[in-house]
Every structure is written in structure tokens, then in C-alpha cells.
Amino acid sequence: MSDWGLDSVTVRIGGVIALDGVSLAVAPGEVAVVVGGDGAGKTTVARTLAGLVRVAAGTVRRPEGRRVGYQPAGSGVWPDLTVDENLSFIATAFRMGAADAPGRIDQLLGATGLATVRDRLGAQLSGGMRQKLGVAMALLAEPEMLILDEPTTGVDPVSRHELWRLVSQTVASGTAVVMTTTYLDEAERAGTILALDGGRTLAVGTPAEVRRSLRGAVYASDHPVEGAHQWRRGAAWRIWTDGEAPPGGTPVSPDLGDVLIAAAFDAHGAAAR
Amino acid sequence: MWAMVVKEFRQVRRDKRTLAMMILMPIVLLVVFGYAASFDVSSVEVALVGPGAESLRSQVPARLMVSEVDPSAGRDEAVDMLKRGRVVAVIVAEADSQTVLVDGSELFAARAVVQIVTTARQQTPGLSLEVLFNPGLDTSAVLVPGLGGLILLFVGTVITSLGVVRERQAGTLEQLAVMPLRPRDVFIGKVAPYFVVAFVDLIIVLLVGTLLFDVPFNGSVFTLALGSLLFLFVTLGVGVVISSVSENQGQAIQLALMTLLPQVLLSGLIFPLSSMGAGVRWIGYLLPLTYFNQVAKGVMVRGAPIDSLLVPLGLLALLGAVAFSLAVLRFRRFLAAGDGGQATAA
Questions:
Q1: Which of B4, B59, B215, B296 could form a Cys-Cys staple with B145, CB 3.0–4.6 A?
Q2: Closest CA to A95 of B2, B341, B197, B180
Q3: How far apart are CA B301 and CA B134, in angstroms?
């Protein structure tokens, strides 16, 4: 089975480059996580893969339209329909047979823990419930590729765990999943990470490859160093440099968060150079 | 307080559509009212029938413009002419008497004819006057059919205009875009509930009009239903187009009202089209309510047969096709999700 994804894709939105030669591959049965700060281009990646954005250059590889499941950033739930009605609408639009749809809806309501609120309006669901319903809607027609745009943002830890369990089950069934998130602990679970900054690729690969891709070194320090590229980690400081060790700095093995912050410093430095 | 004033000015400056409306609307209204707001009918088209038609031609008062003369026709043909809306009045000239038959559905023109004929009767013994279809020249008989149209317009355009905006604000428009729905499926799905509600509204208005205000219903229910169907098609299409070009519900309502107001003023519902200045009258001929008004008034008050209403029905169908195409095109832009496989930049 072929990979889905982006090959050197450039997207312009209103004359501004939103994605600049970005590539990402996700195989069936694999999770690719897109991370980055605000305005990095995460949503544009999701929308491009969903076919909602015209690309200026490059190639988008995705399954035929009805084989894509997509959850937009705002959950995609119709607020004035009940949980059941939201799912039934999707089932009808995807022409799921009357024999299959009710069973599949029951299965997803059970998996998301929404079976007890199936008559509740979308607007009356909690944030976590709404996101889970959004994921269930995207999953209903058993897509080959599932695209989730920040499904866990603003969701409590228990609901996040349940959402990830759902994603894991989906991946186990052979679906390719692309998910955007601002939580780096979620990125650690991915087969592939795409880290973006201002529409450009900071790093791409497995979590181990992304960690290895870091130039220079990260140091821990109990005080800030003037002029250094540094950030807070609890009560201490992390300092990244591709030159000499900072005074009083102790070399540390950087985690994914450190690597991505350092990579952003590196990229901005390269742009300035 | 100063901070609040500055903030409001900044917000107003950025809402260019509202700003333009606040500045342009009074000017437009002033001009339109100046040219359109007139109940005065300067001249009325009449037909002359009967054996004495030719000899009577030179004696017709100047304000009655003779457009047809048919000495071989009689009273039945005269009534038919009025039913079909070919003229506002017909003078049936018999050998020893003359009868002026007036179409009461054209309220202001009919009143003008009544006034002219009443004056003329003092010098012409044997001249009689008969107002048909709306003998009492009641305003309600003429307004209720048009008001039905206005309600269809309100539900069709104003309420529908909120439909797509609501999807966009709820973030569900993208959900629709990735679903296997064709633009026309979305359009028809969107307008179907409003269509039913508007039709029920129309039935209620017409029932109340006929039962409570004694508005006559002399024509075919089928013809009125056909006209209403075509008119609704136009108004719903316009509503969807407005919805698709609006960023929020406030903008949608604003735009919808901007399409509503000219229709109220320039469709002939309040001011007769024939009384309007040529500069604004042509706008009236672009508005769907003008044609619905002609159909509704024709069917209900005059009992006009369908073949005499083919022009307004045809124009409603044309306007409907334009509105529907625009709405579907707008949806196509929104629902531009590719159909899968490889999407490569051109």
C-alpha cells in the first residue's frame, strides 16, 4: 500500500506563503504528528491533506475523497444536532447502508464514552466530549486516511487519553493518521513527526531521527546567560549553542521539546545569517 | 471614555460594508424616493371596443391613452382584456350608450380613471362606469397578494441568508466540504426547510387575506403555486448567495435587507411602476417581487389565465436560474475539496 502525504508542497494564502516546500509521508497503520507554534502551518497541512487548499507547488497524495476522514480545528460538530443526529447525518452523506450504520455508530459511541449522551445537543457537550464526537464523526466511514486538526487542544487529560486510545485502535486497523497538536508528549507517540515554524520544515522524521537532527548541543544552567539562546525548564534554564559551552552550563540529553525549541533558534539564526 | 470612543471608531472604520451603507444608503434612498414615491398616475392606457369605438376615439379625454381599438369586440372580450392585464380600462361603445370597464386591481390607475370618467359623465349622458375585480377599490385586495410575496422574500432571503454563515461560524462548513456531497445537494438541502416554511407562511397569509380581509381569489391555485414556486426559487437562491459572501450573521442580515428594501419600494407593491421616473423604473423590472406581484395580483384579483402571465412567470424562471447558478457556483468554491488521488499544482 502506498504512503499518503505531501511532496514539497507550497501553499500561498492571500499572497503569504503558508507552507514552503513541506513534505510529509504517512503509511497505512502509522501516525504522523504535525507540531509547531501558533501560525506554524499545522492547520494548513491538515487542510491541504483534506483537499481544502489549492497548492501553489508540489504534490498532495491522498485517498479518493470519501476515503478521507477529517476533523477540522473547531471539532466539526453541528451544535444544533444531537450526538446521534450528527453521526447519522455523516452516515447518510457517506451512503453507509442502513444495515451497517447503526452498528458502527453504537461501536464508536461506546469507544468514545458518548453512549450515555447520544441525545444531547452538540452545543451542550463539554469541550472534550465535543472533540471525541468530532473524531467519531471523522472515523465513522472507516477512512483510509484520518486527519485530525488539534483534537486534544483544550481537552482534559482523561479525555486526551481516551482520544489517543481511539486513535491507536484506528491505526491498528490500518488507517493512516495525521494529527496536528501543540503537545509534544503526543508527538513522542508518533511514527513520524513534522515540526513546522512559520510554514517551513524545522525537522521531519521519527522521534529519534528528529532528536538526532539537532545541530549543536543543549546545556542546563541554574541561571540565564546573557545573549544566549535559552528557555526556562521548571526552575532551571536550558541553553542551546552550536559553539562553545556556556559558562556554568552542564550538557544534557535534550528531549523532543528541547530539540524543537533549539531547532527554531537554529532556523531563525540561519535566516538572520 | 476616550478609549471607548477610539475603539469604536477603529471598529467602524474596519467594517467597510457598514460604513458604506451608512453613507450611501441615505443618498440612495433619497434619490429612489424622489423618483419612485408617487401615487400620481398621469395617463392610463385604455381600449375601445364596440360598434361606436372608432367614432368615440376622438372624444376620449387626453389622460386616457387609447392603445387598442376593436369595433368587432364586445363586453366579453373587454372583460377578457382586463383579466389579461392588457389595459387598465376598456370603453365599450354601444350605439346608444358607453360603459367604461375598469380593472380594480390596478388601484391607483383605476382611481384615476374613475376620477376622469366621473368628470366626463357630467357632459356625456349615458356614460356609465363599472369597476371590475375589486369594485370597492379596496387597498387590502391589492396589497395582500403582494404582501404574500414580501413574506416569501423575507423568509427566502433574510432567513436563508443566515444559513451558510451559521455553518461557517460553527466551523462545520469544512466538514461539509470533505463530505461526498455535490454543491447542488448542499444548496437544495440548505434551502429545503426554508422552502417548506415559506410556503406554509404564504398559505397562511393568503387564507387570512381571503377570509379576514375579503380579498378575492378569482384565479387558478395552480398558477399562483407555480408563480410562488419560481419566486421562492429566486429568493432562496439570493439568500444563499448573500450568505456565501458574508463573513458573519450581521453582514448577511445587512445585505439581505439591502435587497429587500428596493423590492418593497420599486416593485409596484406600494407605488405604481407607471408613476415612477424612468431613471428608477428600470430597476423595478430587474426585481423578482415585481413579477410575483403581477402574477399574484393577476391570479387572485383578476382571475388572469396562465397564458396571460407567461412573461412574468418566464422572467421569474430566468431570475431563478441565475440565482440558483450563482448559489451553486458559490458552493462549488466552498466545497472545492478535490476528489482524491493526486492533487498536483499546475
A1: B296
A2: B180
A3: 7
